[in-house]
Amino acid sequence: xxxxxxxxxxxxxxxxxxxxxxxxxxxxxxxxxxxxxxxxxxxxxxxxxxxxxxxxxxxxxxxxxxxxxxxxxxxxxxxxxxxxxxxxxxxxxxxxxxxxxxxxxxxxxxxxxxxxxxxxxxxxxxxxxxxxxxxxxxxxxxxxxxxxxxxxxxxxxxxxxxxxxxxxxxxxxxxxxxxxxxxxxxxxxxxxxxxxxxxxxxxxxxxxxxxxxxxxxxxxxxxxxxxxxxxxxxxxxxxxxxxxxxxxxxxxxxxxxxxxxxxxxxxxxxxxxxxxxxxxxxxxxxxxxxxxxxxxxxxxxxxxxxxxxxxxxxxxxxxxxxxxxxxxxxxxxxxxxxxxxxxxxxxxxxxxxxxxxxxxxxxxxxxxxxxxxxxxxxxxxxxxxxxxxxxxxxxxxxxxxxxxxxxxxxxxxxxxxxxxxxxxxxxxxxxxxxxxxxxxxxxxxxxxxxxxxxxxx
Length: 457
Ligand SMILES: NC(=O)c1ccc[n+]([C@@H]2O[C@H](COP(=O)([O-])OP(=O)(O)OC[C@H]3O[C@@H](n4cnc5c(N)ncnc54)[C@H](O)[C@@H]3O)[C@@H](O)[C@H]2O)c1
What we know:
single chain; 8-stranded mixed beta sheet; 44% helix; binds nicotinamide-adenine-dinucleotide
């Protein structure tokens, strides 16, 4: 194999290997982000192998079953690169790594139940690389990590067997992923990306590679930790701003002011960036990214008050949703206990099939504690068991059996539900947490309506 090896710290060699399409790529972690990444590399003509510990996923991929049905545009690419034998998957990390020049890590970086970031997938693979990485390879970490993780942890993990020395016979860099689930193809081909290397030469080499595959603007950062700091800053900015409008919306509700009207007008001002209030902030990024920065702050003895309070507000929003439904039940002289409530939307955000850290789960648990018989409907989950409940697959049939409903996720499909459908419920009680329902139309239909942050109608 060694005669095939490209020296990944030599710009000229990498350029030659790209142009001749002889550069061999291994993507470790082929989930939501890693699979589209691997497919993009394969589509550019580079031989690409995906590694994952999930045997079913690997088996599905190798038997041509595309696992990311809610990522438009990728199924064709998947079929195409599989047919051309440019992409395959394996659980055998050693074989894949030893036959590759470029190793991309798209491993999960979740947090534990105490909100402590969990980097175990990266540290396990880092230790494995220490034993199996071929000298002169380049490792690029795409996972979202705290600033300093590469410098303080990853390099020493990969070097620990003594075979490999940074900048001597292996290199590392980062290219943090910015894509939005459900829009990954669009984001991969349009959004600028951050690039940071262990030195300037490696940064240039990473730019060369990503330019070959993605042709998007590549923002050169001075080092890995700065690139990771930018990635976290952009996401935590959103977490904090959502908390800001969510908190304001609670007050506007009491003041008889419609937050949606406030925001639509506010966004006319050139420097206002609109964020919407909601049932809470979930997903694999925003909440975790805030806790990643809080973790860094704690490690170095700094306090990040704004991020802390933002998290507190966002984590309290599901409680407010339960207050809204409870209040609507009071108005209709019904008790929540033994009532039937339909949760519309269980994904953590609109138009994706993903329930990671979804506020819907907390709302379901809180309602169940109050004795509610909870039903779930989400167009992305038909007859699937989620949060211990089987999802419904026919909205028209289930609504008349319900006492009330709560729109938790703003899926586009929900915008097309005629308002009259909700008046078919036994008590016509509706809570909208995403500003989808027009309160005036709801009132006309004699629906007992509560909109999160919406007063004054
Ligand atoms: N999903 C997003 O919206 C998004 C957006 C931007 C950045 N990110 C970041 O990208 C990274 C990956 O996230 P994701 O959403 O693709 O996660 P994911 O859970 O969908 O995929 C991760 C994959 O890694 C595999 N894996 C876990 N441990 C492994 C190991 N030891 N060896 C090999 N494979 C292993 C899992 O089986 C899984 O298939 C995270 O750091 C995340 O924060 C995610």
